[in-house]
């Protein structure tokens, strides 16, 4: 995530928020990129059946829901408000909750409804330009089906889940929560990948600070600090999401899913603790950097001081013999000039030896 990307996103959020000021609660306003076209995929599986199809509308997608099949409807792009209303009407989702689905800046949360479970979480991944992407994802779990809403179609971390659904041997059809749990697992596992890349950058900066600190490194440290704060905002609430799901006694969450959710909760704790450690390291890196730059400056000043100290007696001797007096001793001696040079060289060597014994050099 480059600095320019962060600034651009902030401007977009301010513009979108300003448009909603004064509107009544439940007003359906999409905050994301309105240039993204909405596309809908349907994946349907049973023991000996697999279907993956792109559909043209929400009504067509909902027509595939069947009580004897597991159906995953994935909606990429949330710009088509009317299509979102169709999903909300089918699932009896009120406008307040649909508003949360469309609000791409909404904090991750879980809503336990009578016939559904709504999960909002943030998906993080690196795009092809190695920029960090944060994508708003909402999951609506119903009996025998799952509807997911993604902010964009540019990419996600769900390909491992899709591959497992294609393979009949890896489908866990005894648990109708397996698709949602698999998607949550993919999102949370990718948090580890994000933190690993941050760890690599921190290690590189640490080594450079110790070996060769640069003046522009403070801006890199500040950028990593901002990223750590951003990740904390995106990742930490996911612990509450998984914890609430794991402790819930909702009829849609079968007992078979609880061990997987408990395992996910353990992962979120580890991720949050690791992120906290990295934040502490980054805050300490600033002090380390300032200490390294101060030490580097002290070494430079010490070297300059030693050079000046060596030349002080030499300058004195040259200054004395540079005075234009006629009757000065040693001026007319044959070996006066080399003798002065010998004295200056001996003084320099003695001072260098003295500095070395004192370990100033």
Descriptive notes:
With 361 residues, the protein is of the alpha+beta class. The N terminus is likely disordered. The chain is built from nine helices and seven strands.
SSE layout:
Elements: H1 3-20, E1 39-46, E2 49-55, H2 58-62, E3 70-76, H3 81-91, H4 95-102, E4 109-112, E5 117-126, E6 132-142, E7 145-150, H5 159-166, H6 178-211, H7 217-247, H8 258-321, H9 336-357
Parallel strand pairs: 3-7
Antiparallel strand pairs: 1-2, 1-3, 4-5, 5-6, 6-7
Helix pairs in contact: 6-7, 6-8, 7-8, 8-9
How would you summarize this macromolecular structure in one to three sentences?
This protein is of the alpha+beta class and 361 residues long.
Number of helices: 9
Mean pLDDT: 83
Task: Bin the strand percentage.
Answer: 5-15%
Shape: rod-shaped
Order of helices and strands: HEEHEHHEEEEHHHHH
Structural class: alpha+beta
Largest sheet: 7 strands, mixed
In spatial order, strands of the major sheet run 2-1-3-7-6-5-4
Query: How many angstroms does the end-to-end distance come to?
Result: 44 Å
Q: Give me the Rg, rounded.
A: 34 Å
Low-confidence spans: 1-12
- Amount of helix: 55-70%
Count of DSSP strands: 7
């Amino acid at each position: 995530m480059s600095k320019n990307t962060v600034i651009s996103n902030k401007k977009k959020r301010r513009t979108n928020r300003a448009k909603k000021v004064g509107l009544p609660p439940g007003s359906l306003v999409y905050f994301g990129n309105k240039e993204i076209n909405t596309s809908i995929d349907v994946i349907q599986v049973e023991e000996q059946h697999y279907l993956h199809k792109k559909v043209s509308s929400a009504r067509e997608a909902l027509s595939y829901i069947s009580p004897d099949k597991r159906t995953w409807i994935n909606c990429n792009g949330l710009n088509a408000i009317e299509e979102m209303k169709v999903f909300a009407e089918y699932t009896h989702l009120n406008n307040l909750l649909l508003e949360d689905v469309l609000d791409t800046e909404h904090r991750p949360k879980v809503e336990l409804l009578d016939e559904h479970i709504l999960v909002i979480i943030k998906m993080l991944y690196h795009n092809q330009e190695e920029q960090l992407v944060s994508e708003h994802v909402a999951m609506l779990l119903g009996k025998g089906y799952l509807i997911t809403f993604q902010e964009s179609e540019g990419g996600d971390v769900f390909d491992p889940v899709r591959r497992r659904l294609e393979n009949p041997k890896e489908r866990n059809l005894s648990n109708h929560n397996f698709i949602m749990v698999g998607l949550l697992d993919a999102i949370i596992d990718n948090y580890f990948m994000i933190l690993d890349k941050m760890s690599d950058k921190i290690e590189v900066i640490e080594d450079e600070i110790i070996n060769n600190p640069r003046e522009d490194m403070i801006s890199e440290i500040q950028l990593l600090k901002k990223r750590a704060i951003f990740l904390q905002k995106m990742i930490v609430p996911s612990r509450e999401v998984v914890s609430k799901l794991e402790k819930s006694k909702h009829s849609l969450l079968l007992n078979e899913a609880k061990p997987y959710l408990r395992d996910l909760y353990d992962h979120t704790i580890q991720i949050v603790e690791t992120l906290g450690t990295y934040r502490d390291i980054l805050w300490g890196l600033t002090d380390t950097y300032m200490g390294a730059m101060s030490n580097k400056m002290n070494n430079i000043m010490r070297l300059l001081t030693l050079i000046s100290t060596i030349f002080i007696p030499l300058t004195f001797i040259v200054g004395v013999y540079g005075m234009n007096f006629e009757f000065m001793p040693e001026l007319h001696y044959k070996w006066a000039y080399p003798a002065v040079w010998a004295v200056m060289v001996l003084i320099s060597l003695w001072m260098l030896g003295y500095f070395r014994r004192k370990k100033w050099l």
